[in-house]
Amino acid sequence: LVSSARSEGITAFTADALGENHEVLRLFADLGLRTARRFEGPQVRCTIHLDQDDAYLAAVEARGRAAGVASLLPLLRPSAVAVVGAGRTPGSVGRAVLNHLRTGGFTGRLFAVNPRVESVLGVPSHPSVAALPMTPDLVVVAVPAAGVPAVAEECGKAGVRALVVVTAGLDRMQARALLTACRTHGMRLVGPNCLGVSNTDPELNLDATFAAGHPRPGTAGIAVQSGGVGIALLDGLSRLGIGVSSFASLGDKFDVSGNDMLQWWESDGRTDLALLHLESFGNPRAFSRTARRVTRRIPVLTVDAGRTDAGRKAAASHTAAAATRTMTRQALFTQAGITATRSVGELLETAALLHSQPLPEGPRVAVVTNAGGAGVLAADACAEAGLVLPPFTPAVIDDLLAVLPDGATVGNPVDTTAVVSEEQLAECVDRLARCSGVDAVVVALVPTAVAAATGDDLVRALTTAPGRRARPVLAVRLEQDRSVELMPAADGGTIPSYAEPQAAARALAHAARRAAWLAQPAGTVPALTGVESERAREVVEEYLAFHLEGGWLDPRTCAELLACYDVPQLPWAWAECEDDAVLAADRLRGFDGRVVMKAHWPGLLHKT
Amino acid sequence: LVSSARSEGITAFTADALGENHEVLRLFADLGLRTARRFEGPQVRCTIHLDQDDAYLAAVEARGRAAGVASLLPLLRPSAVAVVGAGRTPGSVGRAVLNHLRTGGFTGRLFAVNPRVESVLGVPSHPSVAALPMTPDLVVVAVPAAGVPAVAEECGKAGVRALVVVTAGLDRMQARALLTACRTHGMRLVGPNCLGVSNTDPELNLDATFAAGHPRPGTAGIAVQSGGVGIALLDGLSRLGIGVSSFASLGDKFDVSGNDMLQWWESDGRTDLALLHLESFGNPRAFSRTARRVTRRIPVLTVDAGRTDAGRKAAASHTAAAATRTMTRQALFTQAGITATRSVGELLETAALLHSQPLPEGPRVAVVTNAGGAGVLAADACAEAGLVLPPFTPAVIDDLLAVLPDGATVGNPVDTTAVVSEEQLAECVDRLARCSGVDAVVVALVPTAVAAATGDDLVRALTTAPGRRARPVLAVRLEQDRSVELMPAADGGTIPSYAEPQAAARALAHAARRAAWLAQPAGTVPALTGVESERAREVVEEYLAFHLEGGWLDPRTCAELLACYDVPQLPWAWAECEDDAVLAADRLRGFDGRVVMKAHWPGLLHKT
């Protein structure tokens, strides 16, 4: 419709929708076009502008972004928070959140709303939101599903500007009423069915979740749909020492989405790593635009959940939203430069590398080990992750042999033997890290009684490097307890250490892909003309009518399809016999007299 | 040659070889035939018997096995051990091994051999092996490579019965001299280029390695080519609480091999889990025969090292032996029922499951979670590992809903919600573990403040089960530090707990494959007659001469090739025109008058 209208010179659509008809309102928003809304009683009048180019879109987006980030302030930087539904029974979710806010040391005002008590956990309780001594910016709602719409409406009327609804199991009517209340009163909404939000900024110490512990303040932003995954990420990043800047468990994502959080981290001045766990994408276009921009500044990592039928079925039942299809999701990640991992562990392993080390310029890895077998495992792991173990030049080999003990083998992997000293290992790694044929160094170490007896500490050889190295260095310690650790280095930085060579190799491959992606120009979205989607659809449907399971188009149909999208094609002709072919060749040949002939036999693809 | 000779009625070959020509002697041994050897000066006369059937081979093998195990006694149950090459310099490998034997509490007699000192680390030292007050069963050799042959010869003459040579870097001549000494004097040899051996039997406490720590006594047998991987496995199994029965680092495997160790564990009465890490197979046939037998009794796990070109190159340089090709190795593992993992971590994760839980009868998994997102990750992981999440019957669903809190979703995964109590979770898991449509239960738990506040411990719900369950139960705790732990259960057993759903799913898939393998009949190796390998080779080579890159044989050549191996074929004929086809059909048709016609067009494979 938009295409037809544009080609007819129409510049705007006007639509009237019921304010509670959020499916239609969402559809309008998903168009990715500038849309003005005006509330007229229960109606919303939407004006959708069609006269937009790339630059205009960018400008609109920048304005929207600033507004979007500003609208998150009451959610992520509230000066007063109230918890509705915090009772006296241990094990209630509301009580858990209130306790968490209290023990987390929230620096603003904190209230409970509960008509039956005067205080909960030492926090003063009031009978209603309206009865609070001041209007909180943020209200955490933890009442049973049936009570949620009324609480939301009450909050809206009182001037509350953001809600976190942890309650799960809202039915269709309750969900609609909640959304209407938020839209009518202009409140941002996190949830429902979520774990809560945190902002570790020490000026704030906001921890409005019911996770088991408090996150360590730091530089990673986390947004998850699943609270469970959120807890795992909070724990993992705290343990690694990277820590968390802000956290949002988005649950059913009625309003605040991964997109909002990406924009927040882009401008909060505290986040240098973004971690997402999303099971569905409400607005893939907007998400892709934001992510493309943010990934140029900071790494954005995600767990690609719902890869299998079983996983998608589980996700659909979990977040009550049709999970986005695998192909679509993966295309989205690739296009936006998002680092997509297959598990929470892989996410943390990759985050540890991206947090601590420079990006490798390419996929060439030097492997160093004090135990040959560990070198074999590391070589396998690197090759399987798509990395390359280049051979060393004779000069490099001589250089390394000069510093290593007798018996050392300088292939790639370098086998230093078990008798290598701390100093020799440090020299070896430093030389490799300076070697122009190498993009990264993986050092696989095994503890032996030999090193123990001399007091040599091979791990220390990595962490006492003279100044931060220009190329990434990763340690693998097969006997390590945790799958990944960040070891403090003498220069104030850290070195990632992995229990499995696979984990190190996978993380490094992600880093190399990120480097390759950053090296590409950003690109723009061209305005395409001459696109005949409808005709293309007809061509495809006509074919599928006779080929129910799909197949290969014949060259003529293929050419027709390409023409629908104005894809340039060389002049060609179809010939069914020798004479036709000669005539066609005569007609088509270029100034050098040459033509290309392609044979075609239905169903036969490879012709040699 | 053997085939031709057999078909001519020849029953034995006789061959004379130089005793030091171990390549030829190994070739004879690798035939898998009964071979008698008699030393005649520097010559060895070998008689290779050709008249053997399956039963005969089994009998021979059983005898050899008993002899083989007996020959390992001085190595793995020595009553006196000497270390040659233990000096006073900290950091020498010999000193490290001696110290390890001492601190490990070896119950037998312990000596050092070093002419320059009277004692090392409080252990009496003697100038030579011959000068020791008693002849040790086992000598650990840690002198420089050049000195190894003389020490080996001295040991042989003194009546020593087993050597562990930790020294690396022997050249060809030194290696040959070492082997000759061992063969001439009938000594078993571990190494060279190895970490040593351990036997944790408390009557013995033999720890003759230079690993960093002592292994915890237990039930896993470990044999590795790489000392580094050995250290990782010793550490990992000790940490898991499975512990180690005996350990051998085989290094360059001049004599004692994985095969020997499998036979030892088969009969030592202490081992219920065998872990191998092999980069090469000297005698794949013998190994396969032994492994097929041992895997029926205890699980045999291995790390499949050298899967990639990079890994194989590294392995070749590490153990100085051409690594066995991937295809060959994997076929060997599959045929022998060996559980082949891709990393040390996966090996330990799988060992933890096989050690602690019954085998699943099939691939059907029920997933239970208190956090929907963790359920999605677990569902993905199970599906990717080849497991199945079956839907539950209405009866099971009702049954589960009756015990779970409001809001719980009983699909597969079962989402109990965060407010599930310890008791409810235990009930749910028990019901699923008794459900006939389920082969295993994976429980993905996330710690929340809700459970913490009520004092409910969801993990305890798994470990306090009423008696050992008949089906395996696995926990996944995304926030867990270690990749796998064995949690003590109330019944004295343990429950494996994984940090990653992938790890749990992979381990479970390995267990399901082992169960399927055990369910197959053992099978025998038939005596094949009418095999014309030479003709088959000709057919293949003729084809390859014209098709350098291989391809599909035409039906006539294919039939010819099958005939070389006496593979039964239905009567068939080749027809090039309609009349030929009618005549052939007339000739070939069965009593019901039916024939099958197959079209053929060169290069066209799929004809529909």
UniProtKB/TrEMBL annotation, chains A, B:
**Which InterPro entries does the entry link to?**
ATP_grasp_subdomain_1, CoA-bd, Ligase_CoA_dom, NAD(P)-bd_dom_sf, Succ_CoA_lig_flav_dom, Succinyl-CoA_synth-like
Which UniProt keywords are present, listed alphabetically? Transferase
Q: Which Gene3D superfamilies match?
A: ATP-grasp fold, A domain, ATP-grasp fold, B domain, NAD(P)-binding Rossmann-like Domain, Succinyl-CoA synthetase domains
Spell out the molecular function terms from Gene Ontology: acetate-CoA ligase (ADP-forming) activity; ATP binding; transferase activity
Give the CoA-binding domain ranges. 75-170
Q: Can you name this protein?
A: GNAT family N-acetyltransferase
Task: List the top taxonomic levels of the source.
Answer: Bacteria, Bacillati, Actinomycetota, Actinomycetes, Kitasatosporales
